[in-house]
Design brief:
Layout lengths: L2 H12 L8 H15 L3 H14 L4 H13 L3 H14 L4 H13 L3 H14 L4 H15 L2 H14 L4 H13 L3 H14 L4 H14 L2 H14 L4 H13 L3 H14 L6 H16 L2
Length: 283
């Protein structure tokens, strides 16, 4: 549940000005941001390391480097970067956000919640902090009501916060309130017509509601927007399976495995299990 908010944090960081005063520091910092925008995280880390070799106390570079390391799945080193940023500036909100994301990915949701609590106490109007804490409530204790309350607060602070509407929709889906789930996810899509995750999450809500054709349509839209999004193929495969179109389900789950390269990916593992089940059924 954390991948989308990692992207959100990185977007926030990309809005921060370069903090270094030396020309070389500014050049390397901007290079690192550029590589991160290009999703070339190895080069981004190398650039931020150059900044830190000149100025070890560059808080933003430490945080950017940590975010890039998250995408490279080096979570322990990422957390060390965030801790260093926090040591340098305990009130640097993006570092608390990013540390919360990393801890969430590692299923250390209680610690993640503490990071968001700290961010919110420092900046009470921190919409992203409330969204992050909603993820933590969702993951730590499956406390969907508290997740919805935090999404409510995020939306109150930022009425155009598409990600908060999307996650509130996902939380309502977990409570089996599919109408409210679809309503919130539709609002997220209205705010951001390119919001891939919102389409596939709404597709899941339609599937749980029993509207399989609309579910397939939403997952297909997500795939059209991002053909490399393995989760959308996985979810569409589940819709096809529910429709008893096992050939189409198999093709989508095979595509999921192809697009999810990491062996420890939960989506990849689920797709592999589903493919084995289909094989046992003769498909």
């Amino acid at each position: 549940m954390y991948n989308k908010s990692i992207v959100l944090c990185l977007v926030v960081f990309l809005m921060q000005p370069a903090l270094g005063q030396k020309q070389d520091v500014q050049v390397f910092f901007k290079q690192g941001v550029h590589f991160a925008q290009l999703i070339d995280y190895k080069k981004a880390v190398a650039s931020f390391d150059k900044v830190l070799s000149i100025d070890p106390n560059h808080t933003a570079a430490q945080t950017y480097k940590g975010c890039s390391l998250i995408f490279l799945r080096n979570f322990d080193e990422a957390i060390r970067c965030f801790d260093k940023s926090i040591q340098l500036d305990p009130n640097f909100i993006p570092a608390w956000h990013a540390k919360g994301e990393a801890l969430g990915i590692l299923k250390r949701s209680t610690e993640a919640k503490q990071c968001y609590d700290r961010a919110i106490s420092t900046k009470p109007k921190d919409a992203l902090g409330y969204l992050g804490r909603a993820y933590a409530h969702f993951s730590a204790n499956q406390d969907y009501d508290k997740a919805i309350i935090d999404c409510d607060k995020a939306i109150e602070l930022d009425p155009n916060f598409a990600e908060a509407f999307s996650f509130r929709g996902t939380s309502y889906r977990q409570k089996r309130d599919y109408e409210l789930a679809i309503k919130n996810l539709t609002k997220a899509i209205e705010l951001n017509s390119q919001y891939v995750e919102a389409y596939t999450n709404r597709g899941n809500a339609y599937r749980y509601k029993g509207d399989i054709e609309q579910a397939i349509a939403d997952h297909t839209k997500a795939i059209k927007l991002n053909p490399e999004f393995g989760t959308a193929y996985f979810n569409r495969g589940r819709a096809y399976y529910q429709k008893a179109d096992y050939k189409a389900a198999r093709l989508d789950w095979e595509k999921t495995v192809e697009l999810e390269p990491f062996q420890d990916s939960l989506i990849r593992q689920a797709a592999q299990n589903n493919l084995q089940a289909l094989k046992n059924m003769g498909y």
